[in-house]
Amino acid sequence: MSAADPHFAKHLYFDRHFGRMAARVLPGEYYFTGTDMAILTVLGSCVSACIRDRETGVGGMNHFMLPGGGDDGPASVSMRYGAMAMEILINQLLKSGAQRGRLEAKVFGGGRVLAGMEALNVGERNAQFVRDYLRAENIPVVAADLNDTCPRKIAYFPTTGRALVRKLESASPRLARVEQQYSSAL
What we know:
By secondary structure, the protein is α+β, with helices and mostly antiparallel strands. It has three helices and ten strands. A hairpin with a 4-residue loop joins strand 9 (152-157) and strand 10. The longest helix has 15 residues, at 122-136. 45% of the residues are buried.
């Protein structure tokens, strides 16, 4: 697969809750598969696009922190930016046998999870970016849970297209710290 790719999620484990292998996708990572497994992530202002070929079941998830593609520097080719995260995931799916005309997407995240973050509005910008990107690529969005003020835990099953969303009551200390770092970086 993409073991040499530094952005390919490497945290694989057996998830007892779902009774199958799972991959945990962290910010700036993606994962794709054609096997019956779960792909999981936790989102605050970040967004994940879950994209799959509805006939073959080849699908995956990305997790990006910032909309667009950044500037022209080395950071612009980072998976932390939506443009690169979307391009890499879609290209990997196509290389694995997915057909562009059969792709469908489910998108999640973009929450405003910390008080005082209204001015930057990173979550809203991420959510709008993913909608615009998928519209431009003619990939239908068949489900979405974007914006709001709560973090989310996402479980995606690409072979069936099933997605589970659990809204969390508040940002964990770790998630709050990550959100603050995004804010400072901006």
